[in-house]
Each structure stands twice: as structure tokens, then as C-alpha cells.
């Protein structure tokens, strides 16, 4: 507590009437503002503790138990048994591999699309707000609606994609986009890229708008030409936004669920089964809640590591 | 400012840029066009190869059929209740907390701030089962609060981040003056600060609405009673509604009906939304 607020407390006559609560407060050396602050933050902290902290800690203990719902025997402690099982399940490794493919795709393709879009939108052209709004529409589209539309677009028999490709002569016979292992990932990824590229473009555009005309002018006067201008001004200035976007894609892959659930349910032959779906299947199809929780802790850990690494990268000077 | 470019080259560049933008815009908007166009086609028009681009005559009846055969209004009402409750909950919780973070002096402020933001780091999938247990124990599964509570908890950190930034831009004198006048902090918050924070609160509200409306995973797992489903899940599970015609044109009509409200809301509030979304990115 600083001296000024101490004085203020004294001036208000804090010493005149002191209830028991007040006496405890003074004895503990807590200022009045601190009491108010505790009361203001308490509701949020209570919610976080009750519905996030406690369940998560409790879940960590569940990850070391064998708990099958409806089973006759009570939960059993299995130590690292769930993790040992995970290491042996091909479906776990498969979903980890599939999730990594999505993660790579969700970083590379949306970025490759969004950077030129952001650069174009940064040119002083008419209707920039309109472009910005329209490119953002897929981001706010309900995932179930988007999934249903893309299933229809890529439908084997009646889909417009096959129709267009056949009529252009690019393919001879219609392709079963979501029915074949080789095309199911690219197809679902297309929908995911469609739904996040707008976010990337807007974020990068916000980063570009930090670069004012003054900066460009100063650099130009110093003799910088097009490429150095991009390399030493634009790219470094884009760094914070790029870190946000890359992080969004990487962590996003571990959040993917609805997109796959609606489009392929993880098929064909688990080719699109991401970690989120694998967890869901174990929990609500096989009712292996202990095992599924253990999978959840792995997702939790990977996301924390990714974000720690990304926030480190955010601080590294790229030049 | 001085431009060291040839004016013709500049024109070519801008023209190319606009062309590229327009092309990619067409590709990005196509799924919406196809959804709406297909929702107005006859069953024959969505099951021929190749499909016609536009319906011969728009079949508005498809919408009537979709609403008649599936309780879409009910789903929408459920979603609306969840959205409104989440908006109120998030605003109350995060306004109180961010006021304390900005205008009150207390120890360990940095730690408290980080603790409040920490939930943002967690992937919802890994929270799904822990929350399932606690909601089960509290007897809340298959009720709307089973969605309202998790959403409120998960969306508040972002709101705190946003509101804290906004409150920091307000003059501190406002609060100091009220304090000198002997006003309580709660009075200052509700009577002086909250009205000034309205733009930021609008941003928070739009975010909460769109996220709650679109959320899929929790909504599917925590609420399984057919009539309590939210709209995003109800749409994905249309096929499981008894007597629902499994026809693409009807499904596209339902998808359009679910998507349009949220797109309209976004378009009217896009300035707040995009401003809020990029606030964290450029700092």
C-alpha cells in the first residue's frame, strides 16, 4: 500500500469506528482498495476454480485410472497404464500423425493465401472494408453449416466440384473426394483453410497497417528499393501478427472436431481421425473415460508446449 | 508523400491487385452462393449431373418444409437463450475483474492477470471430459446451463483482455474524482465507467454471441436431449430427426437459415468484431 492511500484512509477517519472485520483487515495489512479488488475478482476466480481448475486437476487423477462407465467394478488405479496403452494403439499414433498433417496444412495454406490478400487489401483501394468483411464471413459461419455445404460441394455424384472438373476435362470420371483416404484429408483441409484464411488475412492486415507512410518514405529516402523494403521493413513488422497466425493454426489443429465430425466422422478407415475425434470416440462410443482423459492430457500438454515455443519465437529477433 | 514509382506501373499493380482480390473473393464466396442457390432448387435440380447453377424457379417451399419437419425454431430459441445468458455472465464477470485490474491497487496484480488469462491457453477438447464430470456431478447435464457455464468461463479471459485494454485508455481522473466525492467503487463502476465502456462491451457481446451460436463440441456432448439441442448441433444431426427428408435442397435450406442470422449480425457489427479480433495481434 502506498503512502498516499494510507493518508487517505486516515483522513476518512478509518480509526474512529472499527468493526471486527475492519480490525482483521488492518491487522493483516490489507488496504481498502485491496478488499474491493478481492471482491471484484472473486466471482471470476470462483468460476475459474470451480469449472476449470478443480475439474482439470481431478481429471489428471482420472487419467491414471481405468474407468469404464456402466462397468460392474469400481475405478481402478492403473498408474501409467493408460499412457502405456496409448503408446501401443495404432489409432492414437494415427490420430497424432493426422493432426500433425492438419497442423502443417492449417499454418502453410492459410498463410500463403492470406499474405497476398493482406498486401492487396493494404493498397489504398476502394471498398477495402467490404473486402475485409466478406473475407471474414467464413470465419463466423457455423461449422456444421459449412461442413454440410462442403460435403455437398465435393459430393461424388451431384457435387459441383466434380461437375466442373469433368466438364473441363481435367478428370475422366467423378472422384469420391471424401470416400478415399488419399483425398479425404485435402478435401476436409480445404474447408478448414476456407474457414480460417480470412482471420489470417485480417490479422496480417492489422500488422501491415502499423507500417505508416512515414516509415516507407524514410526508408525510400535512405535508398531502399522494393525488395529490401519488403525484406527489412514489411516482413519484420509482420512478425507479431505472423506469430499470432501460426500459433492459431498449430493450436487450431488440436481443436479441430466439428469440421471432421460433420464431414467424414474420421473416415474413411480413420484417415481423417484427428486427436479430438479420437478422444471423443473413446469417451462416448467405447465409454473408456479414464483412457480418453489421458488422451486429453496429451492434447493439453502439446498445446502448452506449442504456445510456449511460439511465445519464445515471438520474442526472438528475426533479422 | 513522394512516390518513386512510375504512374503507369502503379496503375497496373493496382489493377492486378483488384483482379486477384476479386477472383479470390469469388472463390471464397462460392460456398455461400451454392448453399443459397441449392436451397431454392427442386430435388431433381440437386440430383442431376451436372447441376444447374441457378434454380429454374426458386422453391421457397423448401424453407417451410425444413422448419416444419425439424424443430429449427426450438433449436434457435435454445441457442438464443444460451447466447444472451453467456453475454450477460461474461460482461458482469469480466467488467468487475478488469475494473479491479485497471483502477484498483493490489498486490500480485501481474499474477492475478496471468491467472485470469490462462484458460485461453487450453484446448477445449482437453477440457471436455473434466467439465463433463463436474456437470454430471452437479446434475446439470442435459440442461442449458451445462453450456452457459462453460462458455462463460471460456470466453471471459478474452473479454478481460479486451476490456482491460479499453479501460486503460480512459482517464484515471474519472475514478479518482468519484473516489474523492466518497463514491463506492461499485457505484463508480456501474454509474461512471460502464456507460463509457459501451463500445467495448458491444464488441464483447458480438464475440460471445457468435462463439456461442457456432460452438459444436460441448453443445453436442453436454446436451443430448433432442429438444434442448442448440442450432449448430441440431443442424448437423438433422438426419437423426424422425421424418426429416434426407434431401440436399432441404438440408441446404436449413443450413442457410442457421447461417444467415449470424452473418447478418457480423456484417452490421463488423467494425467492432474485427477491431476486437486484431487488438491482440498488433501489440
What does this structure look like?
The complex is a heterodimer of chains A (319) and B (283). By secondary structure, chain A is an all-alpha fold. Chain A has a single domain (88-315), classed as Orthogonal Bundle (MetI-like fold). In chain A, 71% of the residues lie in helices and 1% in strands. Chain A contains 15 helices and two strands. A two-stranded antiparallel sheet of chain A has the order 1-2. Chain B is globular. The mean pLDDT of chain B is 87. Helices cover 72% and strands 0% of the residues of chain B. Chain B has two domains: 7-63; 70-244, Orthogonal Bundle (MetI-like fold). In chain B, helix 7 (145-168) packs antiparallel against helix 10 (198-214) and helix 10 crosses helix 14 (270-279). The longest helix of chain B is centred in the first third of the chain and has 33 residues, at 7-39. Chain B contains 14 helices and no strands. The chains are: A mainly alpha (319), B mainly alpha (283). At the A-B interface, helix 3, helix 5, helix 6, helix 7 and helix 8 of A face helix 1, helix 4, helix 5, helix 6 and helix 7 of B.
Structural class of chain A: mainly alpha
CATH class category name of chain A: Mainly Alpha
Distance between the termini of chain B: 26 Å
Q: Major beta sheet of chain A, specifics?
A: 2 strands, antiparallel
Low-confidence segments of chain A: none
Describe the structure concisely for a colleague:
The complex is a heterodimer of chains A (319) and B (283). Chain A is mainly α and 319 residues long.
Features:
heterodimer, A: 319 residues, mainly alpha, MetI-like fold, two-stranded antiparallel ribbon, 2 strands, 71% helix, 1% strand, flat, B: 283 residues, 2 domains, 14 helices, globular
Amino acid at each position: 500500500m502506498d503512502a498516499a492511500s494510507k493518508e487517505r484512509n486516515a483522513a476518512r477517519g478509518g480509526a474512529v469506528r472499527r468493526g471486527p472485520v475492519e480490525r482483521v483487515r488492518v491487522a493483516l495489512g490489507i488496504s481498502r482498495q485491496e478488499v474491493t479488488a478481492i471482491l471484484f475478482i472473486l466471482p471470476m476466480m470462483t468460476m475459474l476454480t470451480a469449472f476449470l481448475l478443480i475439474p482439470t486437476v481431478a481429471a489428471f487423477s482420472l487419467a491414471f485410472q481405468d474407468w469404464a462407465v456402466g462397468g460392474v467394478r469400481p475405478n481402478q488405479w492403473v498408474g501409467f497404464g493408460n499412457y502405456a496403452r496409448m503408446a501401443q494403439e495404432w489409432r492414437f499414433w494415427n490420430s497424432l500423425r493426422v493432426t500433425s498433417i492438419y497442423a502443417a496444412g492449417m499454418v502453410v495454406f492459410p498463410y500463403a493465401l492470406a499474405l497476398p490478400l493482406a498486401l492487396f487489401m493494404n493498397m489504398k483501394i476502394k471498398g477495402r472494408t467490404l473486402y475485409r468483411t466478406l473475407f471474414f464471413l467464413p470465419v463466423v459461419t457455423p461449422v456444421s453449416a459449412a461442413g454440410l455445404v462442403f460435403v455437398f460441394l465435393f459430393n461424388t455424384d451431384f457435387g459441383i466440384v466434380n461437375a466442373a472438373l469433368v466438364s473441363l476435362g481435367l478428370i475422366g470420371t467423378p472422384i469420391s473426394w471424401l470416400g478415399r483416404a488419399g483425398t479425404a484429408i485435402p478435401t476436409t483441409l480445404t474447408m478448414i483453410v476456407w474457414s480460417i484464411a480470412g482471420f489470417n488475412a485480417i490479422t496480417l492486415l492489422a500488422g501491415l497497417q502499423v507500417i505508416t507512410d512515414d516509415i516507407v518514405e524514410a526508408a525510400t529516402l535512405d535508398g531502399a528499393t522494393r525488395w529490401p523494403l519488403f525484406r527489412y521493413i514489411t516482413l519484420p513488422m509482420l512478425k507479431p501478427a505472423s506469430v499470432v497466425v501460426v500459433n492459431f493454426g498449430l493450436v487450431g489443429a488440436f481443436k479441430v472436431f466439428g469440421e471432421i465430425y460433420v464431414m467424414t466422422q474420421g473416415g474413411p478407415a480413420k484417415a481423417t481421425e484427428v486427436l479430438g475425434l479420437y478422444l471423443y470416440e473413446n469417451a462416448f462410443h467405447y465409454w473408456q473415460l479414464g483412457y480418453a482423459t489421458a488422451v486429453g492430457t496429451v492434447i493439453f500438454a502439446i498445446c502448452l508446449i506449442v504456445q510456449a515455443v511460439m511465445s519464445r519465437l515471438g520474442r526472438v529477433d528475426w533479422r | 508523400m513522394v512516390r518513386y514509382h512510375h504512374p503507369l506501373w502503379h496503375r497496373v499493380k493496382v489493377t492486378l491487385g483488384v483482379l486477384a482480390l476479386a477472383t479470390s473473393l469469388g472463390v471464397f464466396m462460392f460456398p455461400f452462393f451454392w448453399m443459397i442457390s441449392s436451397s431454392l432448387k427442386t430435388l431433381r435440380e440437386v440430383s442431376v449431373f451436372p447441376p444447374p447453377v441457378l434454380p429454374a424457379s426458386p422453391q421457397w417451399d423448401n424453407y417451410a418444409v425444413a422448419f416444419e419437419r425439424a424443430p429449427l425454431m426450438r433449436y434457435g430459441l435454445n441457442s438464443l437463450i444460451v447466447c444472451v445468458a453467456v453475454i450477460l455472465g461474461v460482461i458482469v464477470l469480466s467488467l468487475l475483474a478488469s475494473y479491479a485490474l485497471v483502477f484498483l491497487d493490489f498486490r500480485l496484480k501481474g499474477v492475478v492477470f496471468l491467472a485470469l488469462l490462462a484458460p485461453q491457453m487450453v484446448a477445449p477438447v482437453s477440457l471436455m471430459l473434466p467439465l463433463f464430470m463436474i456437470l454430471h456431478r452437479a446434475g446439470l447435464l442435459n440442461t442449458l446451463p451445462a453450456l452457459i457455464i462453460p462458455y462463460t468461463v471460456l470466453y471471459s479471459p478474452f473479454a478481460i483482455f479486451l476490456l482491460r485494454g479499453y479501460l486503460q485508455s480512459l482517464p484515471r481522473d474519472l475514478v479518482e474524482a468519484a473516489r474523492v466525492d466518497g463514491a463506492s467503487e461499485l457505484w463508480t463502476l456501474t454509474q461512471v465507467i460502464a456507460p463509457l465502456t459501451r463500445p467495448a462491451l458491444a464488441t464483447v457481446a458480438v464475440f460471445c454471441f457468435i462463439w456461442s451460436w457456432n460452438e459444436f463440441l460441448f453443445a453436442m456432448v453436454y446436451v443430448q436431449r433432442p429438444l434442448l439441442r442448440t442450432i449448430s448441433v441440431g443442424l448437423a444431426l438433422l438426419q437423426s430427426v424422425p421424418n426429416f427428408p434426407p434431401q440436399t435442397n432441404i438440408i441446404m435450406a436449413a443450413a442457410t437459415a442457421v447461417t444467415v442470422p449470424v452473418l447478418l449480425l457480423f456484417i452490421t457489427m463488423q467494425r467492432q468484431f474485427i477491431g476486437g479480433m486484431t487488438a491482440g495481434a498488433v501489440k
